[in-house]
Amino acid sequence: MTRPAKRPAPEGFLWGTAISAHQSDGNNVNSDAWLCETVSPSLYHEPSRDACDSYNRFEEDVAIAADLGFNCHRIGIEWARIEPEPGLFSIAEWDRCRRLLDACHARGMAPMVTYNHFTVPRWFAARGGFEVADGADLFARFAERATARLGDLIGCASTFNEANIQRLIAQFRRGPRAQGAIDAMLAACAKACGSDRFSSLLFASVEATEPVLLDAHVKATAAMKAGRGDFPVGLTLTMQDVQGVGNGHRAEAVIADLYGPWLEAARQADFIGVQTYTRVRVGPQGRMPPPDGVEMTAAGYEFYPRALGGTIRFAAERIGRPIYVTESGIATNDDTRRIAYIDAALAEVRRCLDDGIDVKSFLYWSLLDNFEWTRGYGERFGLVHVDFETFERTPKPSARHLGAIARSGAF
Fold this sequence. Notes:
Blueprint: E1 14-18, H1 21-25, H2 32-38, H3 54-68, E2 72-76, H4 79-82, H5 91-106, E3 110-116, H6 122-126, H7 135-150, E4 156-160, H8 165-172, H9 175-193, H10 206-226, E5 233-238, E6 241-244, H11 251-259, H12 262-267, E7 272-275, E8 279-283, E9 286-288, H13 307-318, E10 323-327, H14 335-354, E11 359-365, E12 384-386, E13 393-395, H15 397-408
Parallel strand pairs: 1-2, 1-11, 2-3, 3-4, 4-5, 5-7, 6-8, 7-10, 10-11
Antiparallel strand pairs: 8-9, 12-13
C-alpha cells in the first residue's frame, strides 16, 4: 500500500527548534563553563564570549522562530545567572526569564524549558558539583524556586539536558593523556576559585556523579510537580541509533554503557526527550568506524538522518513513554544538505507515526548557529546564520523549508 502524499501531524504536535542558554546568550561569567573556557590550560578551542548575544536579543530570536511558522520554542534557564552565589537569587534574572516566556506566548509558541543544560554556577562546581551528595538538594532548591517564579508560563519541561551525556563522552574518551588534560584544566579552575576541587559536568566521571544526578532528577521533578503551573516533566537523553553488525556483535553492551540507569528513570517521567544525530555500528569487537565513502557532517560523524527513526522506536520499545523529539540536526556549511537531513528525519517521524508510535514533537537543533562547547564556533547547526561580530541573524533556506512544513501541519 502506498502512503498518501501528505500525512497530517497529530493534534497538538509541536514544531520548532531547540536552543540553550550558555551556547546562545553569551557572557555567562558566573558559570563553570565560562571558567573552563578561560583558564589555562583549557580544552576549549575558544571562549564563548558574547555567543549570539541572545541574552539581549531574545525577543528578536523568538520573533524569528514564530515568523518561520513554529509553535514551540525549547529554551534553557541559566542557574549560574539566577543564583550567582549560594542562596542569592536574582529578582532581575527571574524577571528576564518571565519576559522570555511571555514573548513565546505572545507569539503563539509553547515554551519547553530545560532546567539544566550542562552548566552550573561556579560556586556549585567549586564545592564539588554533582559529586557531592547534597548537590541534589541544591539543584532541587533551584528547581523549586524556578517553578514558583515561572511555572505558570511553562508549556513542558525537563530536568537535565541529555542526562546520560557523561556516558556518551566516556565511550569516546581514551587514555591517560586525555584524562591528564582534563585534570590540568580542572586544577586550574579550582585554583582560580580558591578551592581544592572543581567539578564540571562534561568532564566529571560517571561513577562520581551519576548517583547524585539521579537523585537530583527525582527531587527536582517532585519540586516541579508540586510547584506553580501544570506541565509535563520529562527527561531528555542523548540517543544514538545503535546497530549491531555481524554475528556476535556487542550492540547490547554498548546500549547498556550508553544508558545505564537512565532508561529506568525515563520510564518514570512524563515523557522521554529523544536527542539523536547519527548512528553507531557495533561489531563483535565493539564500536566500528563509519563505512568507507559515507558522507560525514562538519561535526565529524556520519550523515545518517535515518537514525532518528531507530531511536524513536527504541524509546517506544524500551521506555514506553510519550516521545518528544527534542533535538535532531546537522552541522554543515552546505544548507542543501541541511534540507536533505530535515526531510529524511521527518520521513522517519512519519513512519513512526504511521506505525502508531506516540511522537509529539520535532524540534530541530538549533535555531541559531551558536557556541558548540569545546569546539567553539566552527560548527554551524543553525537554521539561522549568525554573524558573530555584528550578531545579525539571517534565516537560511532550510529555516524557511522547515517553517513551511510546520505551517502546513503535515508530513
